[in-house]
Amino acid sequence: MRILNLDLGERSYPIYIDTNTLGQPELLTKHIHSKQVLIVTNETIAPLYLAKLEKLLVDYSVETVILPDGEQYKTLEAVSTIIDTLLEKRFNRNATLIALGGGVIGDIGGFAAACYQRGIAFIQVPTTLLAQVDSSVGGKTGVNHILGKNMIGAFYQPQCVIIDIDVLKTLDDRQFSAGLAEVIKYGLIRDKEFFEWLEQNLDLLINRDNDALAFAIEQSCINKATVVAEDEKESGVRATLNLGHTFGHAIETGAGYGTFLHGEAIAIGTCQAADLSRRMGWLNDDDVARIINLFKRANLPVKPPADLSAESFLELMSVDKKNIDGGIRLILLKAIGSATLAMTIEQKYLLETLYEYGRN
Amino acid sequence: MRILNLDLGERSYPIYIDTNTLGQPELLTKHIHSKQVLIVTNETIAPLYLAKLEKLLVDYSVETVILPDGEQYKTLEAVSTIIDTLLEKRFNRNATLIALGGGVIGDIGGFAAACYQRGIAFIQVPTTLLAQVDSSVGGKTGVNHILGKNMIGAFYQPQCVIIDIDVLKTLDDRQFSAGLAEVIKYGLIRDKEFFEWLEQNLDLLINRDNDALAFAIEQSCINKATVVAEDEKESGVRATLNLGHTFGHAIETGAGYGTFLHGEAIAIGTCQAADLSRRMGWLNDDDVARIINLFKRANLPVKPPADLSAESFLELMSVDKKNIDGGIRLILLKAIGSATLAMTIEQKYLLETLYEYGRN
After folding, report:
1. Which residues pair with A153 in a beta bridge?
2. CATH code, B2-170
3. Which residue in A42, A74, A150, A182 is the catalytic one?
4. Alpha helix (H) ranges present in B231-303?
5. B92 vs A142: CB contact, 8 Å cut-off?
6. CATH class as words, domain A173-356
7. B250-294 confidence digits (pLDDT tens)
8. To which H or E segment does residue B178 belong?
9. In this prediction, does ipTM exceed 0.85?
10. What are the extents of the domains in chain B?
């Protein structure tokens, strides 16, 4: 078993990565400190893994909330549904909430845990590749608002993250590819060696080879944990994890939540960020081609939707969280393996990217 | 000017107590670090103090949300209203939210600030005695659920608390008395000398003598700040601040939010806690009489509503946050000036208090 530690002082926690972690009750139960456990999951995951998780919890008083599946349900109403259940079932503040699902379930469940009685314990059991390599690690929780993604939320760290590689066997191809977008991101922003490993081993990953998956998940989590430990509340370097996300959030919001998977939108957004980095003089044509090519090999879209105009992008990007006092700040690439927060982007280059990239 | 510091490491902040603090722009502006400011207030306070506050902020881009007045509006919907405005007006994560009002406004505004983009700066400008001595200090924010008070919230500290004693001039008598309930609480739980000062000076307070008010507010805030600094997240001693609150929350929820003011319910609840402390053998008849008498002199109710049965109390008390794994835990008094978290309350005594206290 690979065990990583996210070092956040008194809020530190382990990330367990292995096959069959859901067959090991003590991994879970040593992090639960009361009888009451609420499992939050969705309609897709419940038939697959809920019984397996419940089997680990026979000695506990377990309740379950099953939400509909999809980013469009990542709303304050979903959080209310969970809190209604917690109250109706008289959960006290020592209770534990387990989020069993992908990024949406982790974000909703984590935020509900953060808010209920001003904070109860929670545990992440991510069931998508994207959640395993990104959203379950680092304590960002929250829900969407019709005017912007993740606009309502909290920084709230789990007790532990339990990653079972076996669950990726049932993940559909589209979801799996979406997860690869965030894996590729780590290589791009801070780990050139990993990016090159991905170029060489992407086919193994696509074929869901266990060893390749374990390595890619571990490297992703190491990169994520290192960045989060340095900057938990995103006042500096953590922002580099948002490579492609300002473009990507605009795509998700503009196209309507649920049209694109988060990872798909991030793939497109990262290609846009790479194009803009080239216009800024930081990447060369070959770098951009390598990036686009790797996303394509991962079966990810690389062009923005034709009906989302440059004007819509500008409008949507200006409400993104990463923007301070009106100016647009973006994470761009100085090189493959090196991201930077660009504060003074020449408007001309941004407009060129929006008007030209992927428009033909 | 009296300036207290709430010592919470990197989350430390000052509490300013004086007359005319709302005439001193720099007190406020030195804690604001961006152009965008949202003032959250209510329909009662806005006509009285909103213009005065806005005058301090002429150099800022100020928006306002005016909520209806009352505990019954302390809901997730009110938080949504604030977040809608923040997004519609494109507030970024460097923005500051100012809560101008009583405890309800501070709790709602603070929770909205905690959640918006996972946390923006906020400042408390409490306008009721209760908010000045209690709810504005210590970082508890949140809203009510139909099944329980403050069930949805966050621990989220402000940048500063600005207490202007002059605003108490416009506070109606009922609200003023409600604030005195929490002032008396500090004497009861940890400051016998202050309790005795209150017995001697209550008439000065009732007449809103500035010096007496400044002293009582300062002593209350010192007591609160000391307890919070020791136990920010309420894993221990902070629970003693909840003297009377488990009974009180049951009264508020049972009677319907808005029927009793929070301080009124706490006065009754504290008398119930005193009665139970006597049955436990900790207070004598004279202690209980002194406590009830002081609340009466502060024009506060001391008996539970006749239509709230002992059975309803039990039902409502069991969902209170202070209860762990089914057992009822209550803050009781070992003596005047000394509170304790009673974990093993004899059911018999609790029932006697519920069936007998104030029922004749």
Report:
1. A142
2. 3.40.50.1970
3. A182
4. 245-255, 262-279, 285-297
5. no
6. mainly alpha
7. 999 899 878 999 999 999 999 999 999 999 999 999 999 999 999
8. helix B173-190
9. yes
10. 2-170, 173-356
